[in-house]
Design a protein that fits this description.
alpha/beta, Rossmann fold, three-stranded antiparallel beta sheet, 9 strands, about 40% helix, about 10% strand, binds 3'-phosphate-adenosine-5'-diphosphate
Length: about 350
């Protein structure tokens, strides 16, 4: 592990867990759910199964716990020049993107060949903090402890971001074919013991009421931002990443201002990073086989590494369900220039990079 001393002399990104453990102060903080109880009590609410109540905040369906964290992000998060924000709807490749972006940005301090690379000893979520979750847990101030450039993550819709963040940070967004996202979400909740039958989750999603939904609003917000300001917002798709992870690593390097040099290429650096971050490599690590993530709902680290394929929805939806959901999504995306049409054809096939033109 790199020597950590005081965080002020570090150059980021550094693993969040390495820094914050020096800043544990045992202080009791007011829970954001209590702090924002007046707002929470006024929000429309629905039950997503017996175990999960969702509130509608700024048009988005969320647990009260997450709403509280997002309000705190909106009011308190101080962005800094150089911050890099990874953004995504849930279950669309966040964990993988965290691993790839960290390994790419920090490769001078932590070469992929390093046996003690943070990726080999920490779960990706312990390296790159989930902002609203930190705030929900009353620990938003810990983000201040991270040296610049900070690498942070959010599931917030683009429209919810504090203006300072949307205005000055580089953002990398990843989305995924929505049916696969839903299936992944269902398995994830199930792994934590939540009772949410798949048909119920599906029905909620058709009405835009799944957790973090409507999914189309999430995707369209970042899509519009990336087309308006491509130098600020990079738009990735999980299926494209799967088809060619090495190209994704190179793209990330260019976008984040740390392009791979000819010497890096000769040394195999992009290939090494892609291999180190592959689902098989990550899921085989002790750090990802054991441990718990999450404060409100607790998820085992292993639950973040399930199948990692395109088209698993065919094992959970009837053709009629798929047609209905596709039609809803197509209708919402119409005219935006973004579609999931080609990705759908890849159901349960190994994706082929040549068959996936960008964002069609
Ligand atoms: P999060 O939003 O809770 O952080 P996220 O990481 O976005 O979850 O999504 C998890 C999905 O990414 C899982 O998909 P599945 O359920 O369809 O299998 C998980 O398997 C997949 N995943 C995790 N790591 C990788 C990886 N290195 N390569 C490819 N897919 C991955």
């Amino acid at each position: 592990m790199a020597a950590l001393g005081t965080s002020s002399c570090l150059v980021g990104p550094v693993p969040f867990k390495d820094v914050t453990k020096d800043h544990e102060d045992g202080q009791t903080v007011v829970s954001p759910t209590a702090e924002h109880a007046d707002i929470l009590s006024t929000l429309p609410s629905i039950a997503a199964g017996p175990d999960l109540q969702l509130r509608q905040y700024q048009g988005v369906w969320l647990s009260a716990y997450m709403v509280a964290g997002m309000i705190s992000v909106q009011r308190r998060f101080m962005s800094r020049p150089g911050d890099v924000i990874l953004a995504s709807p849930p279950k669309c490749g966040t964990t993988w993107l965290k691993a790839l972006a960290f390994a790419t940005m920090a490769r001078t301090t932590y070469p992929p060949s390093d046996a003690d690379h943070p990726l080999r000893r920490l779960n990706p979520h312990e390296r790159v903090p989930f902002m609203e979750n930190q705030f929900s847990a009353g620990q938003g101030a810990k983000l201040e402890a991270l040296p610049s450039p900070r690498l942070l993550h959010t599931h917030m819709h683009y429209s919810m971001l504090p203006p300072s963040l949307a205005g000055c940070c580089k953002m990398v967004y990843v989305c995924r074919e929505p049916k696969d996202m839903l299936v992944s979400m269902w398995h994830f909740f199930k792994s934590a013991g939540l009772n949410l039958p798949f048909p119920d989750l599906f029905e909620l999603a058709c009405h835009g009421q799944n957790p973090y939904g409507p999914i189309w609003d999430h995707v369209l917000g970042y899509w519009a931002a990336s087309t308006a300001r491509p130098e600020r917002v990079m738009f990735l798709r999980y299926e494209e990443m799967l088809a060619d992870p090495v190209s994704t690593v190179r793209q990330l390097g260019r976008f984040l201002g740390v392009p791979f040099t000819a010497a890096d290429e000769a040394a195999g650096s992009p290939v090494d990073i892609a291999e180190m971050c592959s689902i098989d490599a990550l899921r085989s690590l002790d750090a990802n086989k054991t441990g718990i993530n999450g404060s409100f709902i607790k998820f085992g680290h292993q639950a973040f590494f399930r199948k990692g394929v395109v088209g698993d929805w065919v094992n959970h939806m009837t053709p009629e369900m798929a047609r209905r959901f596709d039609a809803i999504v197509d209708d919402k995306l119409r005219g935006s220039g973004l579609a999931f049409t080609l990705v759908r054809a890849l159901a349960c096939q190994e994706p082929d990079a040549s068959s996936l033109p960008a964002c069609v």
